[in-house]
């Protein structure tokens, strides 16, 4: 696929700045990249396509403009449209429709995690609410020093329901810290995010510097065997919820098939011959 295949997808920009690397940008900077309903539906559409694209091996995910990765859900638009409203009068029927709506929203954000290619989130500027949900669903998170992050949902009267409360405790080293930021909705910056393990790297500067570092990281991953990278992401995600013994058994079954790839031979020969390995597309 090419950039033109994604040009009609509203509020996003998809480019391919490096071989085998895609850059997905949330493109609503005039609203600080806040999400309306069509955007999370389009997010899933994009990442489902990239997951199946044999020309993509790694993805950088950022927000357009210097001010924000994303200010989260566009609450004003949601309150005026159908996102927070249903036509049913009975409480149980309202709850049923709302539950289906939340699950659909969750599935769209989970497409970042389900994508077969590694996704690197670049957190910069304002990163509130849904921004943390999306970042937590990505494989790697890096942050710019201008980061202003918040698990913001309690400030709009709800418990975060799109992934932060489920994923953050599995990512960071302190359950107490997760509860603190989720219950208070206070802001935290890049240094604090790195300290607790939410991000693995802090980039000195703003979005432009972060994009450069993110693309370099994606480019490095894209040089590796796509079969090995795919397997590594699958095994890590599968093992996260399970014990060591189950993880080892799953890995054995996975590699019983995947070790038969020609990529292993290509990687070994490149090391012996001191040259850069070249791998077939997925």
Automatic annotation (TrEMBL):
Q: Name one GO molecular function term.
A: delta(3,5)-delta(2,4)-dienoyl-CoA isomerase activity
UniProt lists the family membership as follows: Belongs to the enoyl-CoA hydratase/isomerase family.
Q: Which residues form a coiled coil?
A: none
Q: What is this protein called?
A: Enoyl-CoA hydratase/isomerase family protein
Query: Which superkingdom is the protein from?
Result: Eukaryota
Pathway of action: Lipid metabolism; fatty acid beta-oxidation
- Tell me which UniProt keywords the record has, alphabetically: Acetylation, Fatty acid metabolism, Isomerase, Lipid metabolism, Peroxisome, Virulence
Give the matching InterPro entries: ClpP/crotonase-like_dom_sf, Ech1-like, Enoyl-CoA_hydra/iso, Enoyl-CoA_hydra_C
User: What cellular-component terms does GO give this entry?
Assistant: mitochondrion; peroxisome
Please give the biological process terms from Gene Ontology that the record holds: fatty acid beta-oxidation
Q: What is its main location?
A: other
Against Pfam families, the record matches this protein to: ECH_1 (PF00378)
Q: Does the keyword Acetylation apply?
A: yes
Subcellular location per the Swiss-Prot or TrEMBL entry: Peroxisome
């Amino acid at each position: 696929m090419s950039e033109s295949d994604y040009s009609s997808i509203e509020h996003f920009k998809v480019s391919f700045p490096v071989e085998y690397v895609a850059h997905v940008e949330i493109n609503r900077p005039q609203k600080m990249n806040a999400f309306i309903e069509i955007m999370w539906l389009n997010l899933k559409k994009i990442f489902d396509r990239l997951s199946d694209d044999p020309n993509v091996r790694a993805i950088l995910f950022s927000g357009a403009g210097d001010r924000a990765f994303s200010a989260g859900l566009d609450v004003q638009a949601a309150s005026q449209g159908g996102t927070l409203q249903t036509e049913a009068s009975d409480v149980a029927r309202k709850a049923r429709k709302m539950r289906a709506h939340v699950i659909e929203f969750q599935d769209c954000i989970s497409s970042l995690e389900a994508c077969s290619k590694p996704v690197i989130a670049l957190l910069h500027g304002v990163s509130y609410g849904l921004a943390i949900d999306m970042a937590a669903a990505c494989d790697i998170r890096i942050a710019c020093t201008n980061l202003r992050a918040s698990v913001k949902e309690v400030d709009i009267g709800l418990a975060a329901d799109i992934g932060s409360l489920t994923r953050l405790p599995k990512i960071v080293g302190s359950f107490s810290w997760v509860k603190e930021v989720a219950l208070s909705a206070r802001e935290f910056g890049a240094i604090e995010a790195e300290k607790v393990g939410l991000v693995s790297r802090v980039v000195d500067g703003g979005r432009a510097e972060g994009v450069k570092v993110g693309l370099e990281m994606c480019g490095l991953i894209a040089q590796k065997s796509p079969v090995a990278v795919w397997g590594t992401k699958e095994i890590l995600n599968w093992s996260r919820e399970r014990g060591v013994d189950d993880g080892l058994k799953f890995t054995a079954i996975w590699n019983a098939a995947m070790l038969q790839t020609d990529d292993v031979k290509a990687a070994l020969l490149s090391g012996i011959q001191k040259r850069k390995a070249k791998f077939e597309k997925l």
